[in-house]
Amino acid sequence: MRPRDENKELLIRQKAMEIIVKHGLDGFSISKLAKAANVSPATIYIYYKDKDDLITKLCLEVAWQMINCSLKDFSPEMDFDIGLRIQWQNRMQYFINFPTEMEFIEIMRYTNYYEEVSRALTTNFGSVLGPFMENSIQKKQLISLPFEVYWSVAFAPLYQLIKYHYQGSSHVNSTFKLDDKMMMQTLELVLKALKP
Fold first, then answer.
1. CA separation for the pair 24, 103 (Å, rounded)
2. Whether 25 contacts 111, CB under 8 Å
3. Are 65 and 98 spatial neighbours (Cβ–Cβ below 8 Å)?
């Protein structure tokens, strides 16, 4: 059996994401990936059992990268407005620095491959964001809400701005670019909606 080559494995993962983002899951195959990565299909099978194994591992890898970036310099003990601001800044930075990963995970979110990612997110994000919400409620910095309502109000506005940013336009603006000022303006409105 041939030894693993970390650079080759990284290239395979990157090309897999690019193909899925450009052509969707229906347009993805091991032979297409091998051609794009300039390797033989047998080389891909050194690293992955099959196509499903590759996609599942890729989903998990991107999700962990996103989680780690989102929680950088964050603590559940922080005051609510500071903690939410850090998460927004981290998420915006992640999406700007890793646009292919962002598009890839958005595509995967609506597939069966995302089930394992959902379990990991629930366990790991929940163990950090649950205490953050509870501490914020106890400090009377956040109104008590079901998690899903909180999440929708807290992060959907940011994700919509990021989508406009990647599209380069919004419904009324043919040239849209997200900047810190606009992000902070939106965050202030979100904080106002979530605070008692």
1. 11
2. yes
3. yes
- Say if CB 144 and CB 83 are below 8 A apart: no
Quickly tell me which residue has 């080759």 as its tokens.
8
Alpha carbon 78 to chain centroid, angstroms: 22
Cα angle: 123, vertex 109, 49; to 5 degrees: 85
Per residue in 29-39, pLDDT tens? 999 999 999 99
Residue 50: pLDDT band by 50, 70, 90 thresholds? Answer: very high
Phi, psi of 141, rounded to the nearest 5 degrees: -110, -5
Q: What is the pLDDT of residues 76-88, one digit of tens each?
A: 999 999 999 999 9
The alpha carbon of residue 171 and the mean position of all alpha carbons in its chain are separated, in whole angstroms, by 24
- Residue 88 CA to residue 194 CA, distance in Å, equals 15
149 vs 61: CA distance, rounded Å: 27
- Whether pLDDT at 4 is above 70: no
84 and 92 Cβ atoms separated by less than 8 Å: no
This prediction has a pTM of 0.85
Tokens of 192: 């106002």
